[in-house]
Design a protein that fits this description.
Helices cover about 25% and strands about 30% of the residues. By secondary structure, the protein is an alpha/beta fold. It folds into two domains: about 70 residues, no CATH class; about 140 residues, Rossmann fold. The strands form three sheets. Strands 8-7-6-9-10 form a five-stranded mixed beta sheet, sandwiched between helices. Strands 2-1-5 form a three-stranded antiparallel beta sheet, with no helix packed on it. It has a two-stranded antiparallel ribbon with strand order 3-4. Helix 3 packs antiparallel against helix 4. The chain starts with a helix and ends in a 9-residue tail after the last strand.
């Protein structure tokens, strides 16, 4: 891989990479996985065309994975945004930063992608089902308030995965907007957790996380 390709900026969308997971990894991961990336020329901002398997390198635990294929991605994403609006946000007066971050995300994500939003303080609460209506989503983000109780991230992930997604999605995505406050989900034994993770992997789900740090008495992203 050339240095030019290595330094190109990677973000979401455009190319689909199917990757063979090889080496000493758990049994459920010894299969294929999918990564979604966008490759742009930093001088023009335009997408880079005609990339193939030799244009990329993927590593897991410093081991190079085999890339099986690279395909143009044209199917819109379904993005579930889980928002930690727990008491930590209220304690450190971080609700404005949280709202602004959500609005920036909604303004940046291309409008063909469906978005649903959920708060996870205390219990999972749907703020908006999957929609491409950015005005409706921005209204929900701008009207977000702190909830009561701690964040239930794992519970929220599991409930959203089973209730909002039906398994037929080509491009299921989670975006977790979290604080460094306590995680208060119910206990899940290792077998249950592995089964849940396996299902996410097999069905090609991607999970992205962002943490608002409150250490030092302020909110930082």
């Amino acid at each position: 891989m050339s240095n030019q390709r290595v330094t190109r900026r990677l973000s979401l969308l455009t190319l689909v990479l199917s990757i063979a997971i090889l080496g000493t990894v758990p049994a459920f991961a010894q299969s294929t996985g999918t990564f979604f990336v966008k490759v742009t020329d930093p001088s023009t901002g335009e997408s880079v065309p005609n990339l193939g398997v030799n244009s990329f390198q993927v590593q897991e635990d410093m081991e190079v994975m085999e890339i099986l294929s690279v395909e143009a991605g044209t199917t819109p994403m379904k993005v579930a945004v889980l928002i930690d609006n727990s008491e930590t946000v209220q304690q450190f007066q971080g609700i404005s930063a949280l709202r602004n971050g959500l609005l920036g995300f909604l303004n940046t994500l291309p409008e063909e992608h469906e978005v649903a939003m959920y708060s996870i303080a205390g219990n999972l609460q749907e703020l908006s089902g999957f929609t491409t209506d950015r005005d409706a989503l921005r209204s929900q983000a701008d009207g977000l308030f702190p909830g009561s109780g701690g964040a239930k991230m794992i519970n929220g992930l599991r409930e959203t995965w089973t209730e909002a997604f039906d398994g037929s999605e080509n491009w299921p995505v989670f975006v977790l907007v979290l604080t460094d406050g306590p995680e208060t989900s119910g206990n899940m034994n290792p077998t249950q957790f592995q089964t849940f993770v396996e299902d996410l992997v097999v069905k090609g789900a991607m999970v992205h996380g962002m943490v608002f740090e409150t250490r030092g008495g302020g909110v930082q992203s």
